# Entry
Amino acid sequence: MPMINIKFDDRKIQDKKIIELSNAVIKIVQDATNIPEVFVYADSPRIKIGVAPIEIFVEMSASKVPDKEELFEEIKNKLSDWKKINGFEYPITITLTPMNWKFEVGI
# Structure
């Protein structure tokens, strides 16, 4: 299941906008990966030095990413389209990280 971590500068962006973005990114990643179990952690670090207004980190099992470049482009393009349609003016930095991890839910 993909995990999305959004870091943002709360001096520049309100929580309401990040909630809106979070819901959009969940849907975008679900559509791009065909994985329904996608979730977001979003927060603004207490200490911020030279940070981008919004950074999105998408982490998921490497085995679920047959073509990293293709998946990245699809997420990036859908996010760009969403920004235009919704008038979301803030710049976003996005990172896709395939992970070699093992996890178990509900222990």
